[in-house]
Amino acid sequence: AMEVPVQQRRARYKSPGGPPWRETYRRRCMERLRSSRAKLLDRYRQAGDGACGAAPGALLVQEVMEQEWQELRDRLPGLRGEQPMEQVLEDPDELAVLEEIQQELILQEQSVIEEYERSLRFDEECLNAMLDSLDATDRVICPVCRKNNLTVKAHLVCCQCGLYISTQDMTEGKLRSLLESTLTEHSQRCLHSPEFTVTSGMEEEASLLMSCPV
């Protein structure tokens, strides 16, 4: 007599929608993981320093799932008390749903890390191209857009991207030397690529500013 409800319950979990809490829990886990992007990348950088570049495992997934489980449990009385999710969800089909959500979150986490790695490689390639151009020719690639050659005159430095800086007695050789020494000094202390922007105050003339996101 007890088999019918159990079979009905399992049939409900195996339906396309899965158990009733599935979509809410999955959606909230994905949102929390996306909002924790900065935290994820910070952990990845820390793990990378000690792992020689080896691909890390799930850095935030378990934490995200546990935090969202606690909030879901508080809203749904059927999920009972203070027990962890593995004890509450004794049905194999319910646990399968958790594993499916976990794998989806791991894939999402890995895609964020891969995007970050691609961005780092792009920055490194652009920086190397700029350094190569400093060595190879008298022309200087714009450090802001990293695409166009700078126009360097005695009283100004400008670029098609909008960079326009007033100077005094500037030459391409002087500018190249300034950029090269600044980049070299930074690379001796930090492995990440710096960024260049044009900045100016209320009464100050525009200046070229190098900063590092790390």
UniProtKB/TrEMBL annotation:
Domain RPA-interacting protein central span(s) in chain numbering: 60-130
Subcellular localization: Nucleus
Domain of life from the UniProt record: Eukaryota
Keywords: Metal-binding, Nucleus, Zinc, Zinc-finger
InterPro entries xref list: RIP, RPA_interact_C_dom, RPA_interact_central, RPA_interact_N_dom
Location of the RPA-interacting protein C-terminal domain: 141-213
GO cellular component: PML body
GO biological processes: protein import into nucleus
RPA-interacting protein N-terminal domain: residues covered: 8-47
Main location: nucleus
GO molecular function: zinc ion binding
Name of the protein described by the UniProt record: RIP protein
Species annotation: Panurus biarmicus
Lineage of the organism: Eukaryota, Metazoa, Chordata, Craniata, Vertebrata
